[in-house]
Amino acid sequence: MSTVSIIEVKTASQLKQFVKFPMELYKNNPYYVPSFINDEINIWNADENPALQYSEAKQYLAYKNDRIVGRIAVLINHKEEKELGIKKVRFGWIDFIDDEEVSKALVQKAIEYAREKNIDKIEGPMGFTNLDKAGMLVKGFDQLATMIGIYNHSYYPQHLEKLGLVKEKEWVEFEIIFPEVLPDKIHKFNELISQKYKLRVLKFNTKEEIIQYVDPMFDLLDETYKHLSTYTPISDEQRKTYKEKYFKLIDKDFIVCIVDENNHLISFAITMPSYSKALQKSGGKLLPFGWWHFLKAGRKNDRANFYLIGIHPDYQRRGVTSIIFKEIWKIFRKKGVKYLETNPELEENKSIQLLWQDYNPVNHKRRRTYSMTINE
Question: Do residues 153 and 138 make contact, with C-beta atoms less than 8 angstroms apart?
Fold first, then answer.
């Protein structure tokens, strides 16, 4: 019987194999969406990824019959341990063929790493921080993946559960078909809320005008999600990296910012045209011709993805979400967008899910992290 060997990634060539393995695994899968290859490589470069300043990580490849059959990364976020008192080994970038010997060997590597570090818990799949991809798909295997979501085969969770891992956290995602016309009551309610709290929706003529609001957006994210048990504040280095990484993809017309009478940002929402099919066509590369697919997706697209939302706690449950939805509806009507897919939202985060409750959302995807307490 063939055995599985696990090799630590040490060279640039091995790292490229690590990054490209899922592209081979899902080669003919119509729902899988690749990541940008260069971005995936840069995740493991301390000069490019500020999370590595307070984290440690290793990557591994699984071989069987002299071919790559799986991969996994293990990491420790020391900031999480210091600020939240949470001590665990995170595992992510986990992919494998439908072979229990392979999945067992990969999980065993995470367990061994935890024991080496005197840590008694592993959890994944997850990245370094709250803004990284997280959660193994457990529902929605026949749905097109998004640029910010992990896609995996249906056998993945079955393998982990058979190995003794249990559900830790769960996220839900929704699809919304936008109405042709908004009811008059929504227009009147929006006007009432805007006047009552003296709120104003910002209009941007150029992308550069948005820059002054980027840091306030990150501040607002911290205020919005700080009550969640697993949330850690976004560092200055991370802010800079996310600006450089994602700002080039943002369309100013897909951003909603709401300020109070003192021009303080109290809420924002970022949506984008869906770039899933563009990524599929480009194979995770912008050059030489991948940029053309992204340009086309940005100009004409009937589908959009919801990426980030922040609402100051003082304005939550006060109707501000209705203003956001109306503004998004106006944008989508102008752009020809008919479908919106939300970002993954923790089951416990009911305040954010209230944004969609009046618009017939369909819960089409679920994803979860799995954990295991390690006994010596």
Answer: no
List strand residue ranges (DSSP E) for the chain, in order. 5-8, 55-64, 67-77, 89-96, 121-124, 136-139, 166-177, 200-201, 255-259, 265-273, 303-311, 339-341, 345-346, 362-373
DSSP 20-52: HHHHHHTTT-SS--PPPHHHHHHTT-TTT-GGG
CB 304 within 8 A of CB 146: no
**Integer Cα distance of 41 and 44 in angstroms:** 6
Report the chain (376 residues): mean pLDDT per 10 consecutive residues: 89 97 95 93 92 94 96 95 89 98 97 96 93 93 93 98 96 90 82 92 88 88 76 77 73 90 92 91 83 85 89 85 87 90 84 74 95 86
Question: Cα angle vertex 104, ends 153, 370, to 5°?
Answer: 60
Q: Given the DSSP bridges, would you call strands 255-259 and 265-273 parallel, antiparallel or unpaired?
A: antiparallel
Q: What is the distance between the alpha carbons of residues 266 and 220, in angstroms, rounded to a whole number?
A: 7
| Residues comprising the chain, all counted | 376
Q: Is the dihedral of CA 85, 91, 93, 95 positive or negative?
A: negative
Q: Pull the structure tokens for residue 231.
A: 């949330």
Contacts of 208 (CB under 8 A, 6+ apart): none
